Amino acid sequence: MGKTNKSSSKAQKRKRIQDTQRKETKVKSSDRRKWHLEWEEYFMALAFLSAQRSKDPKTKVGACIVNKDKRIVGMGYNGMPNNCKDEDFPWGKGQTAEDNKHLYVCHAELNAVVNKIQADIRGCRMYVTLFPCNECAKIIIQSGIEEVIYYKMPDMPADKTKAEEKTEKIKATQKMFQYKNIVKLREYENKQEGETVFKIETKDSKCRVMISL
Ligand SMILES: [Zn+2]
């Protein structure tokens, strides 16, 4: 009995200390907004926002390049080359090779690199909504980007040959990046609890964007 009283008074004391600590923290951070976007969420959300500019009916990809000072130095999404009008080029896979979008579309990673606003992007990070293909992996390496954070792997086509082709491209990217650890590669991880929802809505509904990561 005595022992129980002793341990319960200890528990009360611990609770009092915790309450005081909580109060102090509350006072100190009373002006600070508790929930906010973490850096990683911010950059990945911008990549997703950028992807919404894409005209591709199937795959919309966005990329965001960030330097060591956490400044955004390049943004891109998958689209037709400059001055090649969207309406004059195919957005599907078509019946003939010529009608296949893959011959023309510039991937988000390529656009983010060529859109860069600082001459040298060596040592930068790239946030991209989809795992980079082998062609983009080469561009990323050549630009000197040292880390790629991707949101997800591409969906596999139902067609066996096409699925194999895609798998080979993924393997080639991994092989190049992992070779002497040229480019660090990691999947995006949500560090906040629950789902992150990034929402912008103006009062007059002229601009509405909602992104769930
Ligand atoms: Zn690519």
General description of the model:
This protein is α/β, with parallel strands linked by helices and 213 residues long. The protein has a single domain (39-211), classed as Cytidine Deaminase, domain 2 (3-Layer(aba) Sandwich). Helix content is 36%, strand content 17%. It contains five helices and seven strands, in the order ααββαβαβαβββ. It has helices at 2-28, 39-51, 108-114, 134-143, 160-178, and strands at 62-66, 72-77, 125-130, 147-152, 184-187, 197-201, 208-212. The strands form two sheets. A five-stranded mixed beta sheet has the order 2-1-3-4-5, sandwiched between helices. The chain has a two-stranded antiparallel ribbon with strand order 6-7. Helix 4 (134-143) runs parallel beside helix 5 (160-178). The longest helix is centred in the N-terminal third of the chain and has 27 residues, at 2-28. It is elongated, with a radius of gyration of 24 Å. The chain starts with a helix and ends with a strand. The mean pLDDT is 88. Bound molecules: zinc ion. Zinc ion binds at residues 107, 109, 132-133, 135-136. Its EC number is 3.5.4.12. This is dCMP deaminase. It comes from Mytilus galloprovincialis.
In which order are the strands of the major sheet placed? Answer: 2-1-3-4-5
Q: According to CATH, what is the topology?
A: Cytidine Deaminase, domain 2
Distance between the termini: 53 Å
- How do the SSEs run, as a string of H and E? HHEEHEHEHEEE
- Unreliably modeled segments: none
CATH class: Alpha Beta
Helix/strand-derived class? alpha/beta
Report Rg: 24 Å
Biggest sheet: strands, sense, closure?
Answer: 5 strands, mixed
Large-scale geometry: elongated
Helical fraction: 25-40%
Give the CATH superfamily: Cytidine Deaminase, domain 2
Number of strands: 7
Each distinct ligand: zinc ion
What's the multimeric state? single chain
InterPro entries: APOBEC/CMP_deaminase_Zn-bd (IPR016192), CMP_dCMP_dom (IPR002125), Cytidine_deaminase-like (IPR016193), dCMP_deaminase-rel (IPR015517), Deoxycytidylate_deaminase_dom (IPR035105)
Protein name: dCMP deaminase
Biased composition (Basic and acidic residues): 17-30
Domain CMP/dCMP-type deaminase: 38-163
